[in-house]
Design goal:
single chain, about 160 residues, mainly beta, Porin, 2 domains, eight-stranded antiparallel barrel, 1 helix, 10 strands, elongated
Length: about 160
């Protein structure tokens, strides 16, 4: 059964449009996820983080850190980075949930809620896989069960390196 000229035109048009569509997709940055290790910053000494990029350069970050086997920290932040191309200014704001064993295993866990901030430089190439961040990342005690730990401002720096996928 021969193919009609009309069917052939439809097939050619479909191939042309799908080629155009997929080339436009590959030109976009589809690497919306990242994992990175951060030294300093919202995890105090270090943290392992997962980051999800949202439209318009917004991002959400969730992390985890364990210090000395007694402290568990979970940073959570939302942010935005500004600029096109490789070099960006990043701003994020969030909280770090902190649990630590006061009496070394005797069911007395202290909870701290720390506010965290990040203002710094972010390098990520448009089609690259690596992410590098460095900046000012202070912490502020929002909630503590003990009066001694309230209203403490801790200036800190942060540096991180990660992989986008």
């Amino acid at each position: 059964m021969p193919i009609s000229r009309k069917s052939l035109k439809v097939i050619k048009s479909f191939i042309f449009l799908s080629t155009f569509f997929f080339s436009a997709l590959s030109a976009q940055d589809l690497r919306r996820n990242a994992v990175h290790i951060e030294l300093g910053g919202s995890g105090l000494l270090y943290s392992f983080n997962y980051e999800r990029s949202l439209p318009k350069n917004f991002l959400v970050k969730l992390g985890f850190a364990a210090l000395y086997g007694e402290h568990l920290l979970s940073p959570l932040a939302v942010g935005k980075y500004f600029g096109d191309g490789t070099h960006h200014l990043e701003f994020s704001l969030g909280v770090t949930n902190t649990f630590f064993d006061v009496n070394k295993g005797k069911e007395d866990i202290e909870y701290l809620l720390l506010g965290n901030l990040f203002i710094g430089y972010r390098m990520q190439r448009i089609h690259g896989r690596s992410v590098f961040r460095i900046g000012f990342s202070p912490l502020y005690t929002i909630y503590s069960e003990y009066e001694d730990n309230k209203n403490i401002f801790t200036p800190s720096a942060a540096i991180s390196y990660g992989y986008r996928f």
